[in-house]
Amino acid sequence: MFSKVPQRNPSVRVNQWVYSSLCQLILDGEFVPGVSITLRGIADSLEVSPMPVREAVTRLISEGALDVSEHNRISVSVMNQSKFDEILYARLQLEPKIASQSLKLIDRKKIKQLDEIDKQLDLYLETGNIEGYIKYNRLFHFGIYQSANSPVIFPMINSLWLQFSPFMRVVAGIVGTNTIHDYHKAALNAIIGQNHKALYDAIHNDISEGMGLLNDSIVN
């Protein structure tokens, strides 16, 4: 079984657990873009039958996280310039907006959680831990976005992250963490100060900075 997938809670349906597990693995960059994956291999690794894997993979294909070729070869989506440009545009439209909307719903407990996540993230950046950086960067952003309780916008954002996270993992592994800079402190200060515009700007700048690094690594 994949070591980074949590054990299934008996109350959670198998097909939902398989889908959530695959999402986590994709978001963490555990699958390399362009490399084939098999339904049987995933089923064996998760110790489930192929049916829930097939359902999850079909769903992830529809969300753009996985590709299927004319020969039924399944792989994590490969990044190209046109796709990247659309993802960047969508992120800049959706993420600063949902972050600003979440502001009034973020309490002191959530602020403390975000601060702890960011401190751990800084440690990973300092020590060059790519795996930790990928995970905690997502936890920071999603920790803000999920506070908005948006049943429409957040799933769209999650789909966008599924499409670029594997590519981000590859690029970060190549360039290292010394070149990565974020605006998380500015975002936290904006949250503490209840400043909508400052939070909007911090998330917008953070996306622009991070995606700019990825853009320089696209090969068409």
What does this structure look like?
This protein has two domains: 14-76, Orthogonal Bundle (Arc Repressor Mutant, subunit A), CATH 1.10.10; 81-215, GntR ligand-binding domain-like (Four Helix Bundle (Hemerythrin (Met), subunit A), Up-down Bundle), CATH 1.20.120.530. 66% of the residues lie in helices and 4% in strands. It is built from nine helices and three strands. It has helices spanning 14-27, 39-46, 50-62, 81-102, 108-127, 130-145, 153-175, 184-192, 196-215; strands at 36-37, 66-68, 74-76. The radius of gyration is 18 Å and the shape is globular.
In short:
This protein has 220 residues and is mainly α. The protein has helices at 14-27, 39-46, 50-62, 81-102, 108-127, 130-145, 153-175, 184-192, 196-215; strands at residues 36-37, 66-68, 74-76.
How would you describe this structure in keywords?
220 residues, mainly alpha, Arc Repressor Mutant, subunit A, Four Helix Bundle (Hemerythrin (Met), subunit A), three-stranded antiparallel beta sheet, 9 helices, globular
What topology emerges from the helices and strands here?
Blueprint: H1 14-27, E1 36-37, H2 39-46, H3 50-62, E2 66-68, E3 74-76, H4 81-102, H5 108-127, H6 130-145, H7 153-175, H8 184-192, H9 196-215
Antiparallel strand pairs: 1-3, 2-3
Helix pairs in contact: 1-3, 2-3, 4-7, 4-9, 5-6, 5-8, 6-7, 8-9
If you average the pLDDT, what whole number results? Answer: 91
Question: What would you call the structural class?
Answer: mainly alpha
Proportion of helical residues: 55-70%
CATH superfamily of the largest domain: GntR ligand-binding domain-like
CATH topology of the largest domain, anyone?
A: Four Helix Bundle (Hemerythrin (Met), subunit A)
Task: Supply the number of structural domains.
Answer: 2
Q: Could you name the ranges where pLDDT drops below 50 across 5 or more consecutive residues?
A: none
CATH class of the largest domain: Mainly Alpha
Q: How many helix segments?
A: 9
Order of helices and strands: HEHHEEHHHHHH
N- and C-termini, Cα separation: 35 Å
Largest sheet: 3 strands, antiparallel
Strand order of the largest sheet: 1-3-2
